[in-house]
Specification:
Order of helices and strands: HHHHHHHEEEHHHHHH
Shape: globular
Radius of gyration: 25 Å
Strand content: under 5%
Number of helices: 13
Helix content: 40-55%
Largest sheet: 3 strands, antiparallel
Number of strands: 3
Distance between the termini: 87 Å
Strand order of the largest sheet: 1-2-3
Length: 289
């Protein structure tokens, strides 16, 4: 299965997720996965909901992994009728105001964390894309940042904010040991020859939110949502935001219409167009004798 995933050029994160799912599937039944069938898949799917309380979207990913194993690795048929996918659930993401984003960045525990949060908000990058930025990706001549090998192994460019460029240069001058390859090198002193892990980005965001006293659930993807929503409120069109985010389908980007205060505030309710008669005065209750 691993060889097949590599041949089809699946991303490392997807490969890890698929392999772990099949391992978990086999471990649940205490049998090799090639000895299991559709009835086992249905039982496994049910317990993901009833016992583990996983979200529908997470279960869909698990089923995709099992489908890959049966169809691509074992070359066995897979019937959607026998193993139907659950309906997806759609939740609007949490959005911070610009004032809250400023509080979050200002509350960063270290200058390194501050730079991570600022870059995430200024570019709208996913946390893996942020962690794997290279120094050569910062193009100050064209004022763009090159995102290489993003989701779906696609490259794209995002804007390089003049304020971000200024902060990056100050961050660079303050580093004792100048990195040669990665913009955000790993280890405690940020001198490793490998980049930071996505967990570092997650921790920087969570700790800053606690220090800022922000009670909303905040994670790295929250800054990506804020980037898109605040761009929309500033007048950017959806197509531009789609390209900047690296969305494959414009429909993915339309969710930010539901999050933009500007668009919601400028849309009048149909009640406002009605001509209503004055509300009748409330009747006074008769006093008891």
């Amino acid at each position: 299965m691993l060889e097949e995933l590599e041949r089809l050029n699946f991303s490392q994160s997807t490969t890890r997720s698929y392999i772990r799912t099949v391992e978990d599937f086999a471990r649940y039944f205490h049998r090799p996965p090639d000895q299991l069938g559709p009835q086992h898949v249905r039982e496994y799917q049910a317990q993901l909901f009833t016992k583990r309380k996983l979200a529908a979207n997470t279960v869909i990913v698990r089923l995709a992994a099992l489908r890959f194993f049966f169809v691509k690795t074992l070359r066995k048929p897979w019937s959607i009728a026998d193993t139907p996918y659950p309906k997806k659930t759609y939740h609007l993401p949490v959005i911070l105001s610009q004032e809250e984003v400023a509080q979050l960045i200002s509350a960063a525990e270290t200058p390194f964390h501050r730079m991570l949060l600022m870059t995430a908000y200024a570019t709208g990058l996913r946390r893996a894309e942020l962690a794997h930025l290279r120094i050569e990706d910062i193009d100050s001549q064209r004022m763009v940042i090159h995102v290489k090998g993003g989701k779906g192994r696609k490259d794209r460019d995002v804007m390089l904010s003049p304020k971000l460029l200024e902060e990056l240069r100050a961050y660079w001058r303050g580093m004792r040991r100048k990195p040669k390859e990665w913009l955000f090198p790993g280890n405690r002193w940020h001198t490793a020859t490998r980049p930071i892990t996505t967990k570092v980005v997650w921790s920087a965001c969570r700790e800053a939110a606690e220090r800022a006293g922000i009670t909303k659930p905040v994670h790295p993807h929250t800054l990506r949502h804020c980037f898109a929503t605040h761009l929309l409120e500033a007048g950017a069109d959806l197509r531009t935001i789609q390209v900047l985010l690296g969305h494959r389908d414009l429909e993915e980007t339309t969710i930010y219409l539901h999050l933009s205060q500007k668009h919601l505030g400028e849309t009048a309710s149909p009640l406002d167009a009605l001509s209503l008669s004055p509300s009748p005065a409330p009747k006074r209750s008769r006093a008891k004798k």
